[in-house]
Structure formats: structure tokens, C-alpha cells
Amino acid sequence: MIKYCKKCVMPDTKPNLSFDGEGVCNACRNYENRKEIDWDQREKELQEVLRRYRSKDGSYWDCIIPVSGGKDSTYQVLKMLEHDMTPLCVTSTTCHLTEIGRKNIENLKNLGVDHISFSPNPVLRKKLNKIGLTQVGDISWPEHIGIFTIPIRVAVNYKVPLIIWGENSQNEYGGPAASVDNHILDRSWLEEFGGLLGLRVSDLEGFDGIIKKDLIPYYYPTDEDLKNVGVTGLFLGYFLPWDGYGNALISQANGFQTWGKTIEGSAVDYENLDNYQVGIHDYFKFLKFGFGRASDLVSMHVRRGRMTRKEALKIVKKHDGRFPTTYLDKPISEILEPLDITVEEFTKICDQFTNKKIFHRDENGNLLKDRFGNLTKVNYDNE
Ligand SMILES: [Zn+2]
């Protein structure tokens, strides 16, 4: 049986999430610990860091900001502009960019910044989507690697040492690298928490005709390259009281567009707008661990006192882990078509990655599904 945090709705099946003796998860405890933080002091620390990296004569960019065009990166850009920084923004394009995602990137550029968009070879990327999905149950595997490696490559190649990331996911979602003092993203953070799922980039050489050269954008720069430029990645969430919803509101006031209705499998309309494959990515999280994006979102709201745990549980039951028939209104067949996967094949892959212990099955042990293909968890909250 899945156990749930007593304060939020996160399950103990989530990798890296730990529970204390009172049954409270470390993401909730991290949030409570934030109350002790002197944010004025942190703001001073931020100003001091930025002062050190700001170009003295204004002849060069002051920092790199990895940007998707989403609510968090729009907020990061706004904050850096407020702090008189001249950023070079870098987008590692998503695997299947949406129309609204494209508009939000344009909006971000129009905040008044220089911008580089990098798209890894799409033919290879489709192969990697398929390998990620069938081998480790993560269609977004290449995208997650690219998000972390490509801005660092740009930092090395353009010789801009400071990289401004958003929140340390280990803080907001819980994990061993969550610590109020943990504010640096480096190679070891990436290798442990960057979502590689035990599949290393080097493992792909020789797979399906892939050669080393195909994988250039996915390899992290060498330690020597990083050291030569002095690359330092900072989490802005260490310096500012990070809140995704607050970031969305501020971004919206600066031209960022939301979906305008609840996104499939989610509980809100303001995030994960830039890639049609996100629905599939999140669905696999549900199949493996019994929680979806709605659980993450409402847990963040519960911690911030914006809804009760009881209300959150209702939302989770309604939205979490629905079979991704569509995402941002695009039918799944059209999302899978470029990868040469049929919906029938996809369903089989889903079943392979489903943790059978946490879903209802018939007397023969087969997964029970409704006519839309939805599974039901054996317990949603100690029921
Ligand atoms: Zn919790």
C-alpha cells in the first residue's frame, strides 16, 4: 500500500522522497524550514554575486539564463533585468514544440534580451524519444538531458561563466540534495538528480546505429572546459522565495500566455505548455509511482496554505494519471505518429512500465481499465 505524506499528498513511492517519524515528507519539511530564512540577507547575497559577474565595461553578457519560455524562465529573465544584468538567454528546444510554447518564447525575447535557440538533430531526437520510452519509460529523456547540457555548452563556448537556473527541484519536490545551503547546479547534481534514470549518454553509442558524433549536444562539457571558463550554475530559488504560481502571475502580467483551461493530467493551466509529449511523460510517472502532475501541483499549494489537504486529495483523484488521450488538445495518435509508434503499441509499453502492485487488477492479475484506458490506484489516501 502506498503511504502518503500527512501534510501534502505526495506518496512514499516517489523516488528520493523521504518521510520522517511523523509521516511528513522532506519537501514539506524543506518548505517549513524556509520560514527561518532571512530573505533580505539572501537578496544582499544575490546582489553581491551578480556584482562580481557583471561585465565591468559593459562589453559582454553578464550571465546565461536557460529559458523554455515558461512561467519560471520568464520570471528569471524579469528578475535579472531588474538587477541590471544583461543576460544571454538559451533555449534548448523541446522535443515537440507547441504553438503556445512558441509564442511564449517570442514573448520572452520581447522582454528585451539576446536569445539563442538550439535544436538538436530532430531525426536522432525521435530515436532517443523512442529509446527513452521503451528502455526506461521516459519519452522526455533526451529533452531533460539537453535542458541541462546545452546551456552549459553555450556558457563554455561563449565564455559566460554565470548560469542562472530557477528552483532546485530537490527543494520543491523533495530529495537528498535538498538543503537550504544547496544552491549550485554542477555535474554531480545533474548526474544524480537530472533525470537520467540510469541511462547514460554513453550507453547510447552503438544503439540503433547511433555513433558518438550524433550525441554531441547531450554530452556535458569536460571538467577542463568548465574550469577554464569558471562556469558556475546558481539556483535563483536559493536567493528568492520561489513560488511557481506567483511566477506565473508575474509572467502573465508580462505577456506570458496560459492555456486558459485545466491541462490534461494537470490541475492548472499555467505550466508545461511547450511540449506535446509532456502528457506522456507525466503519465509514466503515474504508472511507475502512482502519482501524476496534479499531485505535485496541489502539494505545492497545500504547503503554501492555498488549499486544504482534503481539497487537494479530491483534485488528485479527479485529474491525476488520466490516460493521455490528448495533450493541449492534440490527440495522442498525432503525438506518437512522428515517433512511428501506434496507440496500441504505446498501450503495451505503458503496461510494461506499470507498477502492478499499486493498481486494481482482475482475478487473473490483469490491470483493470475503464473504457478510456484509465487505471485506478488501490488507495488514494489511506482509504
Ligand atoms: Zn509532504
Automatic annotation (TrEMBL):
InterPro entries: N-acetyl_sugar_amidoTrfase. SUPFAM superfamilies: Adenine nucleotide alpha hydrolases-like (SSF52402). This is N-acetyl sugar amidotransferase. It comes from Acetobacterium malicum. The lineage of its organism: Bacteria, Bacillati, Bacillota, Clostridia, Eubacteriales.
